[in-house]
UniProtKB/TrEMBL annotation:
One of its GO terms (molecular function) is magnesium ion binding. The keyword Hydrolase applies. Keywords: Hydrolase, Magnesium, Metal-binding. PANTHER family: HAD SUPERFAMILY HYDROLASE-LIKE, TYPE 3 (PTHR10000:SF8), PHOSPHOSERINE PHOSPHATASE (PTHR10000). This is Mannosyl-3-phosphoglycerate phosphatase. One of its GO terms (biological process) is mannosylglycerate biosynthetic process. The lineage of its organism: Bacteria, Pseudomonadati, Pseudomonadota, Alphaproteobacteria, Hyphomicrobiales. It comes from the Bacteria. One of its GO terms (cellular component) is cytosol.
Length: 268
């Protein structure tokens, strides 16, 4: 590790952020350690660029890229948001082309009011407005049986859309995922990189499995992540506590184990 750069990739809701309150206060000691030792923190979330940009600045990692909308897009370092390119409108068009008996059971963010988003997420009104500023994917709620849900996913796939299940929402996009974006970010680094990735939901599995060390954060609010092969080898570990508390303890332990810590003013 002496000649490798350490980067921490993290999901937000249910991982760095508390599932109910969206607070990261319990993770502040580890966040401060990352800042003090110039270790990159890459936010990787279903959230939009409009949501992540102010949070990234608040955490003190504006200089780091961020993975947005479940990996369907990327927010560049120091950017506030990305330009619209028509993908979001095309996703809605393709969803609307699906059989009415299935399409009517899916309510996407584009169909929700800000108040609907608040009710579904417990976000504040202002935060819900940012969550609706989508560019690369359409999350929503499916109201139907498991069989109908699977039929809807298959129909969407035939229309060129890929589905991912997060902690709350079923999300459709043209592809791209957190793991793919993580690999691209690592490939752009000047130095060799050691990666740590943390997540709590099925849409984090690729990210967790692609990292040098993956961490599963328990989340009793949903089914969590099934046992993964990497747990047998130790490449994937489980946090002892939920949400930001588990995130904090695990990141502190892993950074001390895998990083050669140097305060920012002592960087090479």
């Amino acid at each position: 590790m002496a000649d490798r750069k350490l980067l921490v990739f993290t999901d937000l809701d249910g991982t760095l952020l508390d599932h109910e309150t969206y607070s990261y206060d319990a993770a502040l000691p580890a966040i401060e350690m990352l800042r003090q030792h110039n270790i990159g923190l890459i936010l990787a979330s279903s959230k939009t660029a409009a949501e992540i940009a102010p949070l990234r600045a608040e955490l003190g990692f504006t200089h780091c890229p961020a993975i947005v909308e479940n990996g369907a897009g990327l927010l560049s370092p120091n950017a506030q948001a990305s330009e619209q390119d028509g993908r979001y409108q095309e996703i809605q068009t393709r969803l609307d082309s699906l059989p009415d008996d299935l399409r009517s059971r899916f309510t996407g963010f584009s169909q929700m009011t800000v108040e609907d988003v608040v009710a579904a997420t417990s976000l504040s009104h202002d935060a819900a407005q940012l969550a609706k500023q989508r560019q690369f994917s359409e999350p929503g709620l499916f109201h139907g049986t498991d069989k109908e849900r699977q039929a809807f996913i298959e129909a969407a796939k035939s229309a060129g859309l890929l589905a991912k299940q997060g902690g709350r929402f079923l999300t459709f996009s043209f592809g791209g995922d957190k793991a793919e974006q993580m690999r691209a970010i690592i490939a752009e680094q000047e130095n060799a990189t050691f990666s740590i990735a943390l997540g709590d939901a099925p849409n984090d599995i690729g990210l967790i499995e692609a990292a040098d060390i993956g961490v599963i954060i328990p989340n009793p609010a949903h089914g969590g992540i099934k046992p993964l092969a990497g747990e047998m080898s130790g490449q994937i570990i489980g946090a002892d506590k939920n949400g930001p508390e588990g995130w904090n303890l695990t990141v502190l332990e892993l950074v001390k184990k895998y990083a050669t810590l140097k305060p920012m003013h002592e960087k090479d």
